[in-house]
Design a protein that fits this description.
The structure holds two protein chains of two kinds. Chain A has a five-stranded parallel beta sheet with strand order 5-4-1-6-7, sandwiched between helices. Chain A has a two-stranded antiparallel sheet with strand order 2-3. In chain A, strand 4, helix 4 (95-105) and strand 5 (113-116) form a beta-alpha-beta unit. By secondary structure, chain A is an alpha/beta fold. Chain A contains seven helices and seven strands. By secondary structure, chain B is mainly alpha-helical. In chain B, helix 2 (21-57) packs across helix 3. Classes of the chains: A alpha/beta, B mainly alpha. The A-B interface holds A 4, 6-12, 14-15, 53, 120-121, 187, 191, 194-195, 198 and B 26, 28-37, 60, 62-64, 67.
Chain lengths: 205, 96
């Protein structure tokens, strides 16, 4: 088989995949298969909000959604402590700091807030959170992160020693019928699948 | 929309086309295939560099740096340049 024919085959497969992902409900179906539904949140000793990115002091959309999800759970009285995670870079404030300031602006008392910017990966976050919360006796946590990220994150926090109550935040519409929305959904799922594969290969899961 | 504009383009090009539609589609698929190959190479290289930086320099870099739409655009540009560089030079464009 010549290189030209092979390239045409790859190109045809790419076009077919693009069409299937953008113009059929394939990403919506994959989302349902890969992201299990979670039970309603229950009371816990702390709410832990995982990082999702900050750029020069501006929270990413996912970060903002997760932080608001954590604040909403706190305002419902489901835990007395709200832990905001997320690293920073250089001289800029960390994601955790920006989120804590936002939570204070949303009337969460400073005494109920904890910021930890040490965790740079989900695995790191589970470890630093254990260091923060185990001495306080807070083992049962409400874990807040994106829906597709939750299975991997919950497994890592359980492995660290926590009793995890899952409180996923919907970061993308799983029922979208817009081609761009479906492509975004497929991209998020692919990213998470690759992360899960890496974590399994590295023995983290 | 894309279907309508394609139809309009086909009407405009009718009679002036130097290639059959079948041949043009094949060439396009070839370029897309090249773009996919470049994308895989770029992402693979990026992941490798992240692992190298983590292991050798002990500096943290996120894998998510490779999840950037600009990488797709750059891969398409690479494929176009590579594809055109394999085509014969038209007589009037040849350097003198």
């Amino acid at each position: 088989m010549s290189a030209r024919v092979a390239l045409r085959g790859i190109g045809a497969a790419a076009v077919a995949l693009f069409a299937a992902l953008a113009f059929t409900p394939l990403p919506n179906v994959l989302y349902v298969v890969l992201v299990p539904p979670s039970a309603p949140p229950e009371p816990a000793a702390a709410i832990v909000v995982l990082g999702a990115g900050v750029d020069n002091g501006v929270l990413s959309e996912s970060s903002l959604r997760r932080a608001l999800g954590g604040v909403a759970l706190f305002r419902r009285g489901l835990a007395p402590l709200l832990v905001m995670l997320g690293p920073g870079g250089g001289t800029e404030p960390s994601e955790a700091t920006v989120r804590v300031r936002m939570a204070e602006d949303l009337s969460v008392p400073a005494t109920a807030l904890l910021a930890d910017a040490r965790g740079r990966t989900t695995r790191d976050e589970a470890r630093v959170c254990w260091e923060d919360l185990a001495p306080r006796g807070a083992r049962r946590i409400l874990l807040v992160t994106g829906s597709e990220h939750m299975p991997r994150a919950a497994a890592l926090f359980r492995r660290a020693g926590f009793d995890v109550v899952e409180a996923p935040v919907q970061e993308l519409s799983s029922g979208t019928d817009r081609p761009q929305g479906r492509l975004e959904l497929a991209r998020a799922l692919l990213r998470e699948l690759m992360a899960r594969a890496y974590y399994r290969a590295a023995g983290y899961l | 929309m894309a279907g309508l504009s394609s139809l309009a383009a086909a009407l405009v090009a009718r009679g002036r086309a130097r290639r059959s539609v079948r041949s043009a589609v094949g060439k396009t698929l070839e370029t897309i295939g090249l773009a996919v190959v470049f994308l895989c190479l770029n992402v693979g290289l990026g992941l490798g560099l992240v692992l190298l930086a983590r292991a050798a320099v002990h500096r943290f870099l996120s894998f998510y740096r490779n999840d950037d739409v600009t990488l797709v655009v750059l891969s398409v540009l690479q494929a176009l340049v590579f594809q055109w560089s394999r085509e014969p030079e038209p007589p009037h464009d040849r350097p003198r």
